[in-house]
Amino acid sequence: MTALNHQIIVVGGGAAGITVAAQLLKQQPKLDLAIVEPCDKHYYQPAWTLVGGGAFAMEDTIKAEQDCIPSGAKWIKASVASFDPDNNSLTLQDGRCLSYEYLVVCPGIQINWHLIPGLQESLGKNGVTSNYDRRYAPYTWELLQNFKGGNALFTFPATPIKCAGAPQKIMYLADETFRKNGVRDKTTITYGVAVGKIFGIPGYCESLEKVAASKDIDVRYHHNLKAINPDTKEATFTVNGETEVTLPYDIIHVAPPMAAPDFIKNSPLAAATGGWVDVDKFTLQHNRYSNVFSLGDASSLPTSRTAAAVRKQAPVVATNLLGLLNSKQPTEQYGGYTCCPLVTGYGKTIMAEFDYDGQPKSSFPFDPTQERWSMWLVKRHVLPWLYWNRMLKGEGFEPDKWKPLLGKS
Prior knowledge:
alpha/beta; seven-stranded mixed β-sheet; five-stranded parallel β-sheet; 10 helices; 21 strands; 25% helix; disordered C terminus
């Protein structure tokens, strides 16, 4: 079969793929660029926590993929089966072969529901839910509204996940909903965290510990969810990787284990550890194939997997890739910036921004570790607008423009 050739192929039409494609075409509109993406819908996933908390409409998180594809890009509606970077080509699941001069890999992350026995068949009924899937976020709100008391469990897995703050954000909204409905005194809220901290970045971690304590939430560290028994409504956790403990639940919100997509993990593009696309953490260029770049959730970048991280990664990829087109070595560098808007209640958010070194990188002139109503407004209203109208259109990162006005570098 003859390969279909494109100058640049972007694998993935989510936040990362659309953003980097838009930035490339904004700078060089005549590029021959194709986006490989199987889904005909585009989702603003950062709002699904708010959907689960009844503060955002699911329909407002969805647009047609065609409406998000940047002008000048060709959309190939298909899934990738395998990569052959030694021959600058890839094969689609329908058997077609595509060749490229440059490749950008950003298909997102793979959710492994099946690794927790009892979970897949339980989701969306009998008190089992997860905001990590558009099908179940509305059910989360249904559960919170109708809850009459009992045991409410929330979990955080041992694997890297997208939006690492999401598992506890819905827990705080649940607490406030239960209080509003007069059932909090009849409810035990437990947070089973597979790791040893409630959040990995100092400063923000201590603030969230105080939030959890103030809400009387029982945080169980080193508790990794291993199985669900929907018949007895019990969840089994391994503790410190050794002993097991079983906790009863009336509702349970699960943050499932996640991983690099199998078609990446099983390819020459994968890093030896984890199976993520093996890129330099500063230039985002592949460590073995110089004409390959990666960003977003599927990359090996050692930072939180969020849409805000993509906003800072995309211009690095665009600049360095266009530099290669002109026979220049990559010089633009990504410092690990990411942002996790940590919703701690209705009208309260900690805007956690930080870099590779775990240092706060606030876009605002105040202590970022504190809960603020203003940051709730940013999370609820400003960020969705920026996503659809700025980020996906290839526009720059706004804080970079206003920081000089605030005397910040």
